Amino acid sequence: MGEVIRLEERRARLRPDAVVGDPVRAEFLFDLASPFTYLAAERVDRAFDAVAWTPACSRTLRCRAVPANEREAEQIIELAEERAAALRLPLEWPERWPMPVPAAMRVAHYAANEGRGAAFVLAATRLAFAGGFDLDDLEILTEAAAAAGLRLDHCLRAAREERRDGAMEAAARRLLGAGADRLPALWSSRGVFWGEERVADAATTARLAAAANR
């Protein structure tokens, strides 16, 4: 259904002039139900040398990834479509949006623990918001897992493991404690930046700090 993306090859093409030295690191906290995760993920993967991909529970935050009513949904749709146009990214809305995707989030937690967080999040968000597919549909979820190089039996088990929800709630509480109120968010040595539009600010700040320490 989808094309398998070779992340290592793409990173090599996109970072031909990478600076030798300590890698510029960040933690990317996200909710797969949010179109802003899709809009941010591609740039996050390119902007940092090392990223920890952390699914977080949007319900814990004040600004939820899944809107509470029709008016909020309309506002998110309008803003996401404006940002997608500005970034020149395709945007298709999954048929069941706005709905949470708990199974996909649990698989994202498993993927991150296996060191495949980037591959899974990129594959999943492309399927959801570039293809318009429902991530909690078993066929679509296994497609994302296969594209990320994950064992399907382990992913299917992870999708049912409610214990993973606690880790995602804890991640969101960490963000709240740092003053953040929305997802996606980036956490680097220079602090927390929240909102898809802050990706460039977070990357620039982190790289300047890293350069100053060399």
Automatic annotation (TrEMBL):
Q: Name one GO molecular function term.
A: oxidoreductase activity
Coiled-coil region: none
Pfam families reported in the protein's UniProt record:
DSBA (PF01323)
UniProt domain DSBA-like thioredoxin: residue ranges: 28-186
- The protein, known as: DsbA family protein
Origin species, per record, is: Solirubrobacter ginsenosidimutans
- Show the taxonomic lineage: Bacteria, Bacillati, Actinomycetota, Thermoleophilia, Solirubrobacterales
